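Thread: Newbie trying to understand structure tokens

Hi all, I'm a second-year student working on a class project, and my supervisor (Dr. K.) asked me to get a predicted structure for one chain before our next meeting. I've only ever worked with sequences, so writing a 3D structure as a token string is new to me. If someone could post the tokens and maybe explain what I'm looking at, I'd be very grateful. Here's the chain:
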Amino acid sequence: MSVSERLSALGVDLPGVVPPVAAYIPAKRHGDLVYTSGQLPMVQGALPATGKVGESGGLVSPADARSYARQCALNAIAAAAAVVGGVDNLGGVLKLTGFVASVPEFTGQPAVINGASELFGEVFGEAGAHARSAVGVPVLPLDSPVEVEVVFTVV
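---
Reply by user tm_fold:
Sure, no problem. This is what the structure looks like when written as tokens:
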């Protein structure tokens, strides 16, 4: 099954490429690899939430942050697909780096970034298996709760 067929079977419409918020490009191809810039969970030009991830009231919940990581992954797929002529030219995921803006006592960054990792498995099958880092940070651009960078392979 092709990547576009998997996305369709999942009922997922690939978003448009999120415009850069600073001096960079969303993705760059080098040989048979595509590197994405950090992708925020933008939906129709806006963040669905801002703030830190944590367990107590007033913070972004880990469950919500996980869904935002999934959106980051969709935005990364869109950015990478744009530089290789479509999603079916993406072979899979080589490396994922996930950043979670979290309160100091929060240690659930890996579970949050699973939102992105699991989407890659659904979309790319075995080729979605990847090396990964999940890093807690004090703040991200635009006060986003999550951000991901991805290295894709090209077919």
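A couple of things are worth pointing out once you decode it. The chain has a mean pLDDT of 96. DSSP finds three helices and five strands in the chain. Feel free to ask follow-ups in this thread.
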